[in-house]
Amino acid sequence: MKAPEGVRIALMGNEAIARGFLEAGASVITGYPGTPSSEVITSLHEYGVSSEIFVEWAINERVAFEIAYGAAICGARAAVTMKAPGASVALDPIVSSAYGGVEGGLVVLVADDPGPHTTQTEQDDRWLGFLAKLPVVTPSSPQEAKDLTVSAFDISEELKLPVILRTTTRVNHTVGEVLLGPVRPPKRTAGFVKDIPRFVRAGMSWNLERHRWLNKQLDIAEDVFDRISPVRNTVEGSGRFCVVTEGAAYNYVREVVDELGIEVRVVKLSLLFPPPRKFLTEALDGCSDILVVEELDPYLELVVKSLLKDRGSTARVYGKVSGSIPLEGELSRGLVRRAMTSLLPGTPSSAPQEVQPRQALKVPPRPPPMCPGCPHRSMYVAMLIGISRAGYKRGEVPVFGDIGCYALASQPPLEAIWTEHSMGASISMAMGAKVAGFRGPVIAVIGDSTFYHAGIQPLIEAVHKRVDMLVVIADNSVVAMTGHQSTPAWSTLESGRKARPVIVEDIVRAVGVDYLEVVDPYDIDKMINAFERLIKQPGVKVLVSKHPCALLEARSRSLRRYRVIDEKCTGCLACIKVTGCPALFYENGKVSISADDCVGCGLCARFCPYKAIEVAGNE
Question: How far is the C-alpha of 493 from the C-alpha of 495, rounded, in Å?
Answer without folding.
Answer: 5
